Amino acid sequence: MEITEYREAILADLLSRKKKDGTLAVDEKTAHSLLKMLSNEALSDGMLFNTPEDVAETLLEVSRLKV
Q1: Cβ atoms < 10 Å from Cβ of 66
Q2: 13 near 54, Cβ under 8 Å?
Q3: Opening angle at CA 15, ends 62 and 1, nearest 5
Q4: Fewer Cβ atoms within 10 Å of its own Cβ: the N or the C terminal residue of the chain?
Q5: Bridge-partner residues for 24, per DSSP?
Q6: What does each C-alpha distance from 31 to 17, 40, 48, 56, 60 come to in angstroms?
Q7: What span, in angstroms and rounded, lies between the C-alpha atoms of 37 and 41?
Q8: Mean pLDDT, range 27-43, rounded to an integer
Q9: In sequence order, which residues have a C-beta less than 8 Å from that of residue 55 and are 6 or more positions away?
C-alpha cells in the first residue's frame, strides 16, 4: 500500500466512526486536521505494524487527551 492510499484509508476510518448516539465522532475538517499531525515519514515507519484503523484510533485517543 502506498502512503497516499494509507492516508485515505485512515481518513475513511475516521469519517466512519460514530459516537454511541449515532452521530459522527469527527467531522471532515477535524479528521483532516488529525491526519495532518502525522508526517509521511511517520506513517511509512508505522505501516508495517499498524493498520489504518489502529492509526485512526490512536489519533482519536490523542485528540481526546487534548480536549
Answers
A1: 5
A2: no
A3: 85
A4: C
A5: 18
A6: 10, 16, 22, 9, 9
A7: 12
A8: 94
A9: 10, 38, 43, 46
Q: Which pLDDT value is given to residue 65?
A: 47
Name the H helices within 1-67.
3-16, 28-36, 40-46, 52-66
Q: Could you tell me the CA-to-CA distances from 13 to 16, 52 in Å, in that order?
A: 5, 7
The CA radius of gyration of the chain, in Å to the nearest whole number, is: 12
> Which pTM was predicted?
0.88
Q: Which of the 8 DSSP states describes residue 42?
A: H
Please classify residue 63 by burial: count the beta carbons closer than 10 Å to its beta carbon, then call 0-12 exposed, 13-18 middle and 19+ buried.
middle
CA–centroid distance for 31 within its chain: 7
State mean pLDDT over 45-67. 86
